[in-house]
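tool_call predict_complex ligand=NAP
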Amino acid sequence: MSIQKVLIVGASRGIGLEFVRQYREAGCAVTATARADEGLARIRALGATALRLDVASAAGAAALAWPVDGEAFDVVVLNAGVYGPRSTGLQTPTQDEFDAVMHTNVLGAMRLLPQVAEVLAPGARLAVLSSRMGSMGLREVTGGWLYRASKAALNSVLKDASLELKGKAICVAFHPGWVQTDMGGAAADLPVSKSVSDMRRTLAALKPADNGRFVNHDGQPLAW
Ligand SMILES: NC(=O)c1ccc[n+]([C@@H]2O[C@H](COP(=O)([O-])OP(=O)(O)OC[C@H]3O[C@@H](n4cnc5c(N)ncnc54)[C@H](OP(=O)(O)O)[C@@H]3O)[C@@H](O)[C@H]2O)c1
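tool_result ok
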């Protein structure tokens, strides 16, 4: 498919900013969001339209509606996410830790998906940045169980969106790999440029039958 208009939510740095960079380099019109001035400036410096958005805030998420009203995006990526406590084993998170991770990673998507559903071009590709850490089928270790729970919940949210948008858009949950970003750390095995170029290629190649899948950055299906 020819991708012309792109919306990236959570693009101040890391994977989100790299999506902006690569789609701009490919000549796309890109709208991208960040919650602070530094991130907005980085987005603008790449020639994209920058919108202020904190996905953990109800008012912030609602504010996305009017700036994108009337748009028809070929690709939408909901990328914003936080890891939360680096727990090992069964360490109960505090209420604040729980709320911060769940509000950003899950409630944020539940606030934004109904809005972005209104601004999709026919056959658009809609992706959420999940994680293999959210997979129950592939799970063998327990570190970061709050993050894991949030990504498992995000996968559920994506699945429902895919059922609602069937025939209108192709929706996937991505595992981007273990990526060299602030979240992934320097020891991660995948440069951010490679993770994002793989995901862009995968998005462009998606078929209607892929709607509602959990996929690796390179397009390989993953177990929920
Ligand atoms: N890196 C990995 O190895 C890896 C692996 C699996 C999945 N993922 C997922 O991939 C996505 C991107 O990860 P990354 O590695 O690029 O992480 P990162 O470098 O930590 O960047 C996270 C991004 O999310 C934004 N964000 C966080 N909370 C937000 C909020 N309340 N409102 C709006 N934006 C918010 C951050 O904005 P600020 O600058 O304002 O904080 C930043 O742009 C995340 O969903 C992550 O869970 C990453």
